[in-house]
Amino acid sequence: MAFVDIADASLIYGEDGESGTLAVKDTTLGIERGEFVAVVGPSGCGKSSLLKLVSGLNLATAGRVAVGGEAVVRPLKIVGMAFQNPTLLPWRRVIDNVLLPMEVADGLRSQYRRDPAPFVAKARDILATVGLKGFEDKHPWQLSGGMQQRASLCRALIHNPALLLLDEPFAALDAFTREELWGVMQTLWLKERFTVILVTHDLREATFLADTVYVMSNRPGRVIYTRKIDLKRPRTLEGCFEPAFVDHVHALRDHISIARSS
Amino acid sequence: MKRNKLAEQAAPWIALVAMFVVWEAACVVFKVDSFVLPRPSQAFAAMWEFRQAIWHNARFTFTTTLLGFAIAVGFGLLLGLVVGASAFVYKALYPLLIGFNSIPKVAVVPILVIWFGIGFVPAVLTAFLISFFPIVVNVATGLATLEPELRDVLRSLGARKIDILLKVGLPRSMPLFFASLKVAVTLAFVGSVISETMAGNEGIGHLMLSAGASFRVPLVFAGLLVISVMGVAMYAAFAWIEQRMTGWAYRGDVNAA
Ligand SMILES: Nc1ncnc2c1ncn2[C@@H]1O[C@H](COP(=O)(O)OP(=O)(O)O)[C@@H](O)[C@H]1O
Ligand SMILES: [Mg+2]
Hints:
The structure holds two protein chains of two kinds. Chain A is globular. By secondary structure, chain A is α/β, with parallel strands linked by helices. Chain A is built from eight helices and ten strands. Chain A has a six-stranded mixed beta sheet, with helices on both faces. In chain A, strands 2-1-4-5 form a four-stranded antiparallel beta sheet, with helices on one face. Chain A is 37% helix and 23% strand. Chain A has helices spanning 47-55, 94-104, 109-114, 117-129, 145-157, 175-192, 203-209, 243-261, and strands at residues 4-13, 21-31, 36-40, 62-67, 70-71, 79-83, 163-167, 195-199, 212-216, 223-228. The two termini of chain A are 31 Å apart. Chain B has a single domain (39-246), classed as MetI-like fold (Orthogonal Bundle), CATH 1.10.3720. Chain B has helices at residues 2-29, 40-49, 51-85, 87-102, 109-116, 120-144, 148-156, 161-199, 204-213, 217-245. The two termini of chain B are 29 Å apart. At the A-B interface, strand 6, helix 2 and helix 5 of A face helix 7 and helix 8 of B. The complex binds adenosine-5'-diphosphate and ligand 2. Adenosine-5'-diphosphate binds next to strand 2 and helix 1 of chain A.
């Protein structure tokens, strides 16, 4: 069984079944441990809902969701999350923002309180990896949007999650910053090889980062197309102009058009 | 740039002086009887003449106001936490709170008098009753408007409710809390003065009432001025505390990309 195993899963919002919003419908997909997956699809098609299913923040109305061989019946504790909005706490320094999960995470909290030093070292290390060395003691408002998003990624990874869920994390950034952060994301992933599900509406972003791209249909969301991206790593921005890369993007775009018109 | 700053700082004082000058001039030009509207100079003279009585009663008003306000802060913070931390309690209590806040506090004073007699206690309680509402609303709002994404991050970490409250909710609502204190403390003055006027034997409100009864109108206005000065002073004090405690909230929008 795959690390993340979704079988015929559906998600309906709203209590009274019939009248609720059917956000995800009969979706089946399997994600291997250490795989980088991207999910693309029209806006409102249920991408964020799919992440909620995997994280256990919402439970499947029908079908089965399992992570690491265990059915998801409550919010998982092995995930890290980052969103379009960096949601850093403005009164905390960057390093304290990154360490927030250690202060509240079930199971890690007491370990951290007994001996914070290794986690502080880890936080500094990961901040350096994303290019925020020297900004540890700054407050979020002193950082640009791109830098805040880097810090948000660090916060998502500080507790060594087995599964990283990213919901359009780069969508609010300008094109240059966004492409810079693709590189940062790839570096982080190549280093630790956690499993990633990235939701995005940027097909080049999906192609640049993912091993597998899933295209979802209009709501209710279903996977209508799966594409393996077999480009070698590490991928570079120059590589985005090579025919193989462009072919992938075109193939995805064709299926997105089908998805939108369906 | 520098001159602008200076002008900005001086402006409120100039406005204040201008108001007194216009007031004084209008009284002189239109020959307004000092039983109707005394000139500010008469009010200041009365303030000096009755300085001992004013000092004594101002202290009383100050004490009842601050005591009532202190209770309001404690109670408002607690109730705000409870209301803001749980959507259920929020739904249950909000209409009740709105309803309670709509009651003119003047109408409550007679009841307080029946229960506690006149004087100190009803003044403190009226100050409390009138000033806790903005504190509750602001603390509750700060807690209830936690970003859903941040809530998801914390939930998926298995964070306990109390941790979320103490590490995220409470600090987040502090700017609103301190902002509400400024408003609440001026309301508290209104409350204690209402009570002193209706059911007092001490305090600025009582002083004004008895001055009015004996037609010492300049003293009534002296009392008004003293109340305003106390109100402005307390407002300024809490504005200063707000700046000191929650400076981070004014350094720009964190969510701006
Ligand atoms: N908490 C919710 N309650 C009710 N409906 C929701 C909720 N979240 C999302 N939806 C609905 O479910 C559908 C899919 O939403 P979402 O998963 O956020 O789409 P996407 O992330 O692909 O834009 C939308 O129609 C949206 O309105
Ligand atoms: Mg979404």
